[in-house]
Amino acid sequence: MTENARIKALEQIMPATHGADEDIDWPAAEAAWGTRFPADFIAFMGRFGAGSINGEASILLPLPKPGLQWDPAEMAEETDNARQTWEAEGGRSAFDVDPESIIAWGVTGGSDILCWLTSDPDPDRWPVLVCGRHTADSFAVYPYGMAEFLYRLCSDEFDVSPVSITFWDGGHLSFVHWRKAQRRWQEGRNPETGEPDPYAGEFAD
Questions:
Q1: What's the DSSP call for residue 104?
Q2: What is the rounded distance in angstroms from the CA atom of residue 21 to the CA atom of residue 59?
């Protein structure tokens, strides 16, 4: 399955209605990280962008961008968090990898960090590494790319959830781009649902 087919499959269960092309400067991102990125992640950024899934998981920006109300989550901070978790859990004795091969691309509301394990020189072969907060194992590798992992997670295809929370309950799955979420907040609406929220925008400039 091509990366575009994987994104289209994901769109079938999670419409990109509130997504947006992130318009990433990929040469700059590659220079900052010293690597190319997987084709499915590039395709995801072009269709959905960075943002949240059901308000319970966030897809991260590869480079920082200024937010309308707050700066959106980005890879560098969560990658540092994942590597610090690796060290705190015992380093190589807990999970025998080079910490530099851990790069975060997402987080969950349960404080799990969704990463790639970048040991393979081909980014399209990077498996997903979950640094779990309340999972059976602190580190677990899944032999899927980012888009397929999300599809399986959102389709409830894992016998044991790889993350600490259940954000799929058989109901509607929504993705909201970070800029749209922030505009909703400024307008006094819930960032995830768009419904009126008396607390939204309370601290807006």
A1: E
A2: 13
pTM: 0.89
Q: Angle at which helices 39-47 and 3-13 pack, to 10 degrees?
A: 50
pLDDT of residue 17: 87
Q: What is the pLDDT of residues 134-164, one digit of tens each?
A: 887 889 999 999 999 999 998 888 888 898 8
Give the 3-state secondary structure of residue 140: strand
- When pLDDT is cut at 50, 70 and 90, the band that residue 202 belongs to is low
DSSP string across 53-91: ETTTEEEPBSS----SSSPPPBHHHHHHHHHHHHHHTTG
- Token representation of residue 67: 């937010």
From the list 148, 191, 202, the residue with the least C-alpha distance to 18 is 191
Q: Can you tell me the distance from the alpha carbon of 10 to that of 87, in angstroms, rounded to the nearest whole number?
A: 34
Query: Edge-to-edge strands of the sheet including 102-108?
Result: 139-142, 128-131, 113-117, 102-108, 57-59, 51-53, 175-177
